């Protein structure tokens, strides 16, 4: 990628691209960092610009500044450039909300393929419960409940 998009706490990299940015301990939710950020073939989606904003529903939960992490992974960024990216859990929530806003079941968001740690799945569940309190659209709430039952409460090894 020649140039990273301009980001902020309200307009941050999200979706699959965010899943490819490692945590501080260099754990990944996805493993296509080179393809996503170094090959020049992909453009990350920026919340509120390339896709819907979920800021009203989730606030600044899970938005992190990742400039140094990206530089350590080989991204060509000026030393002072900040790049805001959704945490893995925020990226999952964003993808779920994007689908629900289009009245689609987010079947492409398979939690156990993206999160390994039980504490991460528990945190996601907590955020889904908070999200349910904020959703006013009955169709959206129904889709969220269906997704939760199929992709959070399932046994990934069954």
Key words describing this protein structure:
single chain, about 160 residues, mainly alpha, two-stranded antiparallel sheet, 8 helices, 4 strands, about 45% helix
Radius of gyration from the CA trace? 15 Å
Distance between the termini: 39 Å
Counting copies of identical and different chains, the oligomeric state is single chain
Summarize the helix and strand pattern as letters: EHHEHEHEHHHH
Model regions low in confidence, pLDDT < 50 over at least 5 residues: none
Q: What count of helical segments does DSSP give?
A: 8
- Alpha-beta content class: mainly alpha
Based on Cα principal axes, name the global outline.
globular
Could you estimate the helical fraction of the residues in percent?
A: 40-55%
Overall mean pLDDT stands at 88
| Main beta sheet strand tally, sense and closure | 2 strands, antiparallel
Quote the beta fraction. Answer: 5-15%
Number of strands: 4
User: Spatial order of the strands in the main sheet?
Assistant: 1-2
How is this fold's topology laid out?
Layout: E1 13-14, H1 15-19, H2 33-38, E2 45-46, H3 55-58, E3 63-65, H4 67-72, E4 84-86, H5 88-101, H6 111-114, H7 118-134, H8 138-151
Antiparallel strand pairs: 1-2, 3-4
Helix pairs in contact: 5-7, 5-8
Folded structure, characterized:
It is a single chain. This protein has 158 residues and is mostly helical. It has helices spanning 15-19, 33-38, 55-58, 67-72, 88-101, 111-114, 118-134, 138-151, and strands at residues 13-14, 45-46, 63-65, 84-86. The protein has a two-stranded antiparallel sheet with strand order 1-2. Strands 3-4 form a two-stranded antiparallel ribbon.
